[in-house]
Amino acid sequence: MALAMPKVTVVDPMREVVKEFEVESGTKLLKALIEHEIDLVHTCGGWAKCTTCRCTIDKGTPSKVTQAQKDLFERFVRTGQPQFDAPQVHLSCQVIVENDMQVCPSEEFNEIIHDNRGKDTEDEVTPDPVWLDHEVPDWLG
């Protein structure tokens, strides 16, 4: 019997469903979003160097985060950007899809501000991830 593949539900900021699709467990979220033509900017190509691929994961929040994401978010919080101190905000390039999840991309392509959507991304999380436990509050699915 084949295992069910996780379902990714992409929603807009009003939480209306934009698209739903299934991916193999272990797929990098950014790669899955790109392959399913979700309009998401990813300037650095998935190396945790920028925050354009960030998304809010409303359901199915990962129990692990990468050291690269943690360090980047901590730096932004120290410089007065509290939006990076929310447990449901993640860089899609640093997330592995293991379970069903609901995702709201934060930055769509806008030809006035962006030259392009971004560089191609690797299949694996880059840089080589150091995984840390991520405490998911009870109120967050």
Based on the structure given, which CATH architecture is correct?
A: Roll
Helix content: 10-25%
Could you tell me the CATH topology label: Ubiquitin-like (UB roll)
Cα Rg: 14 Å
At the first level of CATH, the class is Alpha Beta
Shape: globular
Q: What is the number of E strands?
A: 9
Strand order of the largest sheet: 2-1-8-4-6
Question: Could you explain how this protein is built, in words?
Answer:
By secondary structure, the chain is of the alpha+beta class. The protein has a single domain (7-109), classed as Beta-grasp domain (Ubiquitin-like (UB roll)), CATH 3.10.20. Helices cover 13% and strands 25% of the residues. It contains 2 helices and 9 strands. The chain has a 5-stranded mixed β-sheet with strand order 2-1-8-4-6, with no helix packed on it. The chain is globular and about 45 Å long. The two termini are 28 Å apart.
At a glance:
Helices cover 13% and strands 25% of the residues.
List keywords for this structure.
141 residues, alpha+beta, Ubiquitin-like (UB roll), five-stranded mixed β-sheet, two-stranded antiparallel ribbon, 2 helices
What's the layout of helices and strands?
Layout: E1 7-11, E2 17-22, E3 27-28, H1 29-35, E4 54-59, E5 64-66, H2 67-78, E6 89-91, E7 96-97, E8 101-105, E9 131-133
Parallel strand pairs: 1-8
Antiparallel strand pairs: 1-2, 3-7, 4-6, 4-8, 5-9
